Amino acid sequence: MARSLLFLITFYFGFENPKIVDACFATQSPSTPVVTTEVPPELRTCSASEITYGVADPNNPEGPVSVTNFGLTSTQIAGTLDSISTMKISCMAIDGYYVNMEFQDNGQVKENLENLQNITVEVTCDSRTMEWIYSSVLDDGSPYTHTVESVVCPQASLTPLNACSPTTIMYAAVENPQTNVEVTNFGFTSTQIPDTTETISTMKLSCMAIDGYDVKMYFNDGGQVKENLDNVQNITVEVTCDSRTMEWIYSTVLENGSPYTRTVSSVNCQQAPLITLNTCSPTTITYGEGDNENPQLYVDVTNFGLTSTQIPGTTETISTLKISCMGIDGYFVNMEFNGNAQAKENLDNIQNITVEVTCDSRVGDWIYMMNLPGIDDPTVETADCLQLPL
Ligand SMILES: *[C@@H]1O[C@H](CO)[C@@H](O)[C@H](O)[C@H]1NC(C)=O
Ligand SMILES: *[C@@H]1O[C@H](CO)[C@@H](O)[C@H](O)[C@H]1NC(C)=O
Ligand SMILES: *[C@@H]1O[C@H](CO)[C@@H](O)[C@H](O)[C@H]1NC(C)=O
């Protein structure tokens, strides 16, 4: 092999310069012609089949089109057995459509910007790397190159699509920065409704209150967003628009499961200081503590499970709280309020007692509701527990 290679190269470059016969390090002599025909059989060339070409789906003439290649030529790199190959890659859209050419890893050709029916580009490959390369110069003058391992050509209709615009909504001006906040929109996208020139658009509407404030978003007709219920600092909602109606729509599902939809022709946002709710505190009760008896006569009284529920439309709340004490085994406890009122559970001679007390913040008193006829429910200021042998 080495012998016949030597012969070929010697033959190719002629005999007058026998020093350049080294296959790896041969240098080009100025008189050496570079030709693309009659190359030695061992010339390494890139193959068009190293690229994967997209194929059209015969059942979907509007889908991606077939990618073809043609015009492969290889030019020997002088003094070597390597070559530079070039060929054309081409895609044709059907009439009324334009085509894009895309390579793997989001590679694009510059021609995609022009909505052309046909795209043909040249790619180049050096047999020393065996990589097909697309290269072009962008409009801003910067070079763009991309390796080409696979090529697909999606096509799309040239007919302009009908789409809603974010600007058809009126965004309220901020007249009073104390109470109004700016409404912004972002993330506008439009998606073609298949087989039509219509689109469905979506975008986000957003408002931000300053710290310590909550925000509420309102639409033209007194419509509100569900998020207004949450007393949150920031609200972002999505609205949708079908170009066949050109109406922006806010739609959601309420807590009770019912759908809620509002058209949005104008939007405004208002902020207000976050309300501090008035609540009852467990610390307004004095809880008894265990004594030094052995076993104790008085045991610790504890509280837990405080909840406060806003009284609708007010800053007041109804709170509930559990008060509890435990006897040791073989003993029962009695719970006593304010030094005299007895828990009704005392009648049961049980080891552990837990009662619930309730407080309306407008009154501020914790009440133990006994629900016994003829007996006033005691207001609980102190709670003590006595432990006695069974
Ligand atoms: C695209 O290629 C097809 C097929 O060669 C040809 O009929 C058509 O005129 C070309 N379109 C344009 C805009 O060059
Ligand atoms: C509201 O948005 C602002 C600005 O992005 C941010 O600083 C703040 O933390 C957000 N507040 C909440 C409660 O997410
Ligand atoms: C009383 O509470 C203690 C501690 O939680 C528990 O071990 C005991 O079983 C309870 N007694 C009864 C009768 O529920």
UniProtKB/TrEMBL annotation:
Residues 46-153, 164-269, 280-385 form the C6 domain. Transmembrane segments: none annotated. This is C6 domain-containing protein. Pfam families: C6 (PF01681). The gene is Cnig_chr_V.g18801.
